[in-house]
User: Fold this.
Amino acid sequence: MTNTPRHILITGCSSGIGLDAALRLSKQGWRVFASARKADDVVRLQGLGLDAVQLDVADSESIAQGLAQVLAASGGRLDAVFNNAGFGVPGAVEDLSRDAMRHQFETNVFGAIELSNAVLPLFRRQGFGRLVFNSSVLGFAAMPYRGAYNASKFALEGFADTLRQELYGSGIHVSLIEPGPIVSRFRANAAEQFFRWIKPEGSFHRPAYEQMQARLNKKGAAVPFTLPEEAVFKVLLHALEARKPRVRYRVTVPSQVFWYLKRLLPSRWLERLLLAASGDEPGFSYGRKAEKRKKSPHS
Assistant:
């Protein structure tokens, strides 16, 4: 580390990965600008000793105002941006409205790219900078009832990979972090989004939704191999400080395993494994089970 602290803007710091990264980087000597969408969360972050700004990545005006506030406080310097803000809108693809999909993409994709584009002129003038995008194992391996989230992370990875090529030789590095299950409020937030956007009554997938809601409402780790937020921080630090940061950082066993299985297995074999690993049984399975019970002489 140099004597002059490096400056980073992190989005989505109200809880989980963003909050953990902000606190840990601050202890590592970074000057952290921790952003959150709600004013109450900004006050709470300030109480933790962080430079906190209100910034909603789903709002262009909020992005411009938040970034201006950061640059005014930093003297016009920014070394890195961690595009962490994101959430999931669960539900079967056939039950997703255009508004629900737009809502998902505004934060997970459009906001991250708009903020990154806003800092690129500064990074180019400096001749250096780091852009880190928090993606997911679902950015390369899709699972059922996560269609909007899957698509948003697939899209984010496409933007990030293209951006990296366009920045080749500029001194600006672009990295993707692809976590599997991490302890956070992600499931609790997803449950709220489900009830906001999905109408299970009358849906073909209603039986599957009941199973899905039980998983979303489960306390603690809902699946094996869940790791604490610190697992993401470890690779984030490498992406920010390594001379040659990696293009991708896969965090947790599921993310690492499915990355290799996608390259080794036929697509249909991989899909069966992803279905089994998802914890959510598609609606047609319930129909088949019911049909078997009707045909069984013991039913």
